[in-house]
């Protein structure tokens, strides 16, 4: 099962406020980070799974917010990003972006029928994810289990 759904948004603060007011989402703050040449901002809701992820990214990045707000991906834990990615490619789901060459263990594959990507995140990052975003959260199974 997926552990989060990600929305790319032009204004992360406004999106967090809107989701707090409408559905009671609670947040663990905003992380400002960079990947390669791209600076971006992201936030995760608490109390999942599933979690809500919001990303505000620069033009040309995988999370280009200048293209407007949209559902971007569903995130799944995996025991092996490489093996799971190869399987999706063999099944005809084109690799959209890999952060692996940039030192981050995840990859996006496009599901054209849904208009979103699947994010495959290495399970080794789960404990850091939980401690950063939802310290009360419980361990989650990888989709390939």
The string of secondary-structure elements, in order, is: EHEEEEHEEEH
User: Which fold name fills CATH's third level, the topology?
Assistant: 2,3-Dihydroxybiphenyl 1,2-Dioxygenase, domain 1
Integer-rounded radius of gyration: 15 Å
Highest-level CATH class: Alpha Beta
Please tell me about this protein's structure:
The protein is α+β, with helices and mostly antiparallel strands and 145 residues long. The chain has a single domain (4-132), classed as 2,3-Dihydroxybiphenyl 1,2-Dioxygenase, domain 1 (Roll). Helix content is 21%, strand content 34%. It contains three helices and eight strands, in the order E-H-E-E-E-E-H-E-E-E-H. The protein has helices spanning 12-23, 81-90, 126-133; strands at residues 4-8, 31-35, 38-44, 51-56, 70-78, 95-98, 106-111, 116-122. Strands 2-3-4-1-5-8-7-6 form an eight-stranded mixed beta sheet. A hairpin with a 2-residue loop joins strand 2 (31-35) and strand 3. It is globular and about 40 Å long. The mean pLDDT is 96.
Which labels suit this protein?
145 residues, alpha+beta, 2,3-Dihydroxybiphenyl 1,2-Dioxygenase, domain 1, 8-stranded mixed β-sheet, 8 strands, globular
